[in-house]
Amino acid sequence: MRKLILIIASFVLFTFISCAKRDYRSVTVVRHCTGPYLKIDGLEYLVCNPKMIESVKDGEQVMADYSFSDECLYDGIQCAMVYESAGWVRVNKIKKNR
C-alpha cells in the first residue's frame, strides 16, 4: 500500500512539473493583410489563434511558447493575396521583451 501511494504521488508530482514548464523561443511578429505570422528561424508561420498576439506590434520580437499545427481555422483574412507561409502555429503563451 505504501509503495502504491509513493508511485501515485510521484506520478502526480511529475505531471505538475512537466505541465508548468514553458519552452519560450525568440520570434518576430509579422502582420500582413492575410493574417498575423510568427517568424521562426527565418520562416513565417500563420498564427491560428491571433488573439494571443493582439497587443504585439508588427516587427516586434517577443518570447513565445508555441506549437506547430496540422490544421488552422483562421478566418481573419482581409485581402485576396497569396502570401507564402511555412505552415501554421498555435501560440500557447507570449512574453514581451523588455
How would you characterize this protein structure?
By secondary structure, the chain is an alpha+beta fold. 19% of the residues lie in helices and 39% in strands. It is built from 1 helix and 5 strands; from the N terminus they run αβββββ. The chain is elongated.
Helix-strand layout with pairing:
Elements: H1 2-20, E1 25-32, E2 35-40, E3 43-47, E4 61-69, E5 87-96
Parallel strand pairs: 3-5
Antiparallel strand pairs: 1-2, 1-4, 2-3, 4-5
Order of helices and strands: HEEEEE
Going by helix content, strand content and strand pairing, the class is alpha+beta
Instruction: Give the fraction of residues assigned to helices.
Output: 10-25%
Strand order of the largest sheet: 1-2-3-5-4
Strand content: 35-45%
What is the overall number of helices?
A: 1
Distance between the ends: 51 Å
Which descriptor suits the 3D outline?
elongated
From the structure provided, what is the oligomeric state, counting identical versus distinct chains?
A: single chain
**Describe the biggest sheet?**
5 strands, mixed, barrel
Outline the low-pLDDT stretches. none
**Number of extended strands:** 5
**Would you tell me the overall average pLDDT?**
86
What integer value in Å does the Rg equal? 18 Å
